[in-house]
Amino acid sequence: MISIEIPGFGKLSLDHLVLDYNGTLAVDGILLPGVKAALNILAQSLTVHVVTADTFGKAAAGLTGVNCQLRVLPAGEQDRAKADFVAQLGAARTVAVGNGRNDARMLAAAALGIAVILAEGAASVSLNAADVVCTDIVGALELLMHPLRLTATLRS
User: Fold this and answer.
1) What are the DSSP E strand ranges found in 75-153?
2) Are 97 and 140 in contact (CB under 8 A)?
3) What is the pLDDT of residues 50-79, one digit of tens each?
4) Would you call 87 helix, strand, or coil by DSSP?
5) How far is CA 39 from the centre of its chain?
6) Predicted model pTM
7) With left for phi above 0 and alpha for psi between -120 and 50, is residue 46 left, alpha or beta?
């Protein structure tokens, strides 16, 4: 569990990390440098879930050696499926990370939503749904490793 009190934002008691794959952890289906190590560190405190449409069909191979649970979604209403997954885990105990239009609902539903802008960009609806926006996935994951960074960004 990761727990932090952020003045004006509230207390976060996080048990789950839910992430999109393509555009969030990977570009063109290839896991980005530093992601595997960061996820394995976070897996010591959080249950890590990767929920993806797997556009390039490379998620399972890319996540080899990562302590996470992979869920590949069927076509159709993926935005709803991702939000429903966060709700099933317990939205109040979940942090979500994504970039695509189909990530917006899960970012809004989670106690903490982090949008990332990588090579494929990010949907504006997801940026608006997020609590924090990062331009580097490792930096986004490090927010959870160093929660006072979240305080610096989210306090009022």
Assistant:
1) 94-98, 112-116, 132-134
2) yes
3) 999 998 999 999 999 999 999 999 988 999
4) helix
5) 11
6) 0.97
7) beta
